Amino acid sequence: MSVIVGNSEFRPLPNNPGAKITGVHESLLQECEKDIIWYRDNFFGKSHQNYLALDSPRGPLAISVIRDADTYKALLRTTAGSERLSVSSSSIPTSFVRRLFGLGPSTVNLMEGISRNIPVRSLRMCKEPNLPNELLSMEERQVIRSYKFGVAYVAPGQCSEEEMFSNRNENTSPAFKQFLNFLGETIELRGWKGYRAGLDTSGSNLTGTHSVYTKWQGYEIMFHVSTLLPFIPGDRQQLERKRHIGNDIVVIIFQDSDVPFQLGSVTSHQNHVVAVVKPEGENYRTIVAPKNGVPGFTPDLPEPCVFGQDAVSRDFFLHKLVNGERASYKAPSFAPKISRTRSVLLYEVASKFLK
Amino acid sequence: MSVIVGNSEFRPLPNNPGAKITGVHESLLQECEKDIIWYRDNFFGKSHQNYLALDSPRGPLAISVIRDADTYKALLRTTAGSERLSVSSSSIPTSFVRRLFGLGPSTVNLMEGISRNIPVRSLRMCKEPNLPNELLSMEERQVIRSYKFGVAYVAPGQCSEEEMFSNRNENTSPAFKQFLNFLGETIELRGWKGYRAGLDTSGSNLTGTHSVYTKWQGYEIMFHVSTLLPFIPGDRQQLERKRHIGNDIVVIIFQDSDVPFQLGSVTSHQNHVVAVVKPEGENYRTIVAPKNGVPGFTPDLPEPCVFGQDAVSRDFFLHKLVNGERASYKAPSFAPKISRTRSVLLYEVASKFLK
């Protein structure tokens, strides 16, 4: 074990002896992307009903409902997330009188049949033709297509965050440079047109001259590399470095040291997953430690958790980090922020169309 | 030069001394994906006009038109491809009488203003509410999300296609096995749930027990590896191998031989891009030779064209191959097939809605 947990909030994940290092076999779609596909395939461009609530016991919400043969399909969007629902039309009661007039179930019966806890009394139907577009673009705004991961170099003899931010790039080892090549491409920041992750690309080099970047499975990943960020002599905390890496949800610690790393020295509230990578010859022994409250995430780590530098190992490692960031959004420390964002987006749409 | 061109149809691409090995910086969107985005963003879910032709001087076609402020936007779908068009409404003549009645331009004036050569007389407007969905799904069916590339092992002393198909897997070199690891993951075919590229995944092992696969930038790539396909003793041509690799548009030749490879020995009509990879220590010296008629494709090859085994080199190499396959679709030997597919798809939609 090359980390010390102490009273840190981070806990190393157990290795799973049945797990294997594989490439990406599963779908990488995010929940909001699945919502978009569900809405596009089943509702958009077809005659369907939309209900909005500006202010309900569950906050602002938007519900889309369509009857498709013997099934009612619905997309229920709340501040907590979206639910894709299907119910048989026979399970929804329709009064004798409504049936007599060839009508479907009442809104109250329909909503209660689709899902419990829909605040029916707060809903208002909205027939504005532009609403479906707005609902879709609201979901689109939640799709995350870029990631920023911190990478910190821990020199021989070091074991804490403060020490690691003090390292100069010219003093890093060849193994670290090789690891950066494993992660991605060293790009020049001046004039960089891709995802910049808060780095200065104006040519003023305020955040260093180069960074490490990759496009992986269609996602852009920028690495905030501690030793490529500016070193300010005399600044004990190296705030210019901590400002970026302290704001990353996932941080990779490259442990070029035989002293166990103190997880307790990682104190930023934003950091949720720490991956400690220790070079062993050409391989990387890896520990992944999520913060308390981050739910489990795939892929499971093998036993021993040692990666090569091959393409499959790299896919596995980046897959674990991307999923670690996605799982972090659900942590109690993070979920309220996501929920607040959804709340604002839902409120914007509802207030625009329920004038 | 480690290939002999002779009277082959393949011509090695020149190296570009200004080119660099980089990761994927540009968009990988296919033209049909750009068409889908253009239609979704500008037409779908909004009030717009669709015109169909079942049989016109340009074959079946479908045109979508929308007025957006002072601009007419159109998507013109023909058997040759789609055009995304924008024209200022002021450039389209509208007769005095039509203006008097608050009408827009006539269909003839509109179409002539949008693009020359639209066979206006063949068009019929279609207001079926389900048409936009069908137009979108027609485009969706043209998006290619999976690729199959051939990989053939050329043993020391060999120089032709026939020889290379005769190699047994147990006689390949460690360098070749390392190259397969560079390309992707060796997966078991039995029960494989991903893209299978025509291979047998039933468990009968009719096409061997394993293959090499990767998910790259969201695309699935299956490699048809010559020595992992069944070896049939006594079959001089090894048709079980040639049947798969001969049907691949892109074929990688792993040249474990100092004898120059004879490009003329690659005779399959389907093969359009040959990449000859020669191991040099831990690196790969590479020649990419497209067939006559394949238009140019990015990224440019550097001088010297030598790749490492790092992630950036791999991204560059796979990027070149994917773009090589995409460029091949435009070759005279291939374009008619693509055009015929589009023709069938357009005819299906037009005949369904112009009953």
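qc> The domain at 3-24+145-331 of chain A is CATH 3.40.50.11210 (Rossmann fold).
qc> done
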